[in-house]
User: Fold Alkaline shock protein 23 from Planococcus massiliensis.
Amino acid sequence: MAEKTAPYVRMQSKGAQDLGNIEVAPEVLEIIASIAATDIEGVASMRGNFASDVVERLGKKVHGKGIKTELSEEGLMIDVYCVVNYGVSIPKTALKIQEQVRQTLENMTSLQTQEVNVHITGVQFETPAGE
Assistant:
């Protein structure tokens, strides 16, 4: 899930003085995107892999799960893999995820995203209380 083409995303500082480069680890972008996606109403969880599921069962929260980042000549591309709640409008929820992820990444890192692709990997049904 955490496939990257470059170890760090490099940005040039924008201001009156050129103070140097800013480097952001791809894991940071994954965490930002994952938290932004889970904030959307209707998103039940992010899809993880076996390792992240084991870590979460041991009590540690994995924030970057369900996100794949790729930096190419065209720009930054984000893939979001999530599970939605039963009964929500999938197209509307996916659009909200795209907008939220794009806006949050731009606000926090000043990076423009080329694509934000949303992959709905499942539907979460509510279980009756006591089961």
The first helix runs from residue 26 to 38. Helices lie at 26-38, 50-57, 90-109. The chain has one domain: 25-124. The CA atoms of residues 11 and 108 lie 13 Å apart.
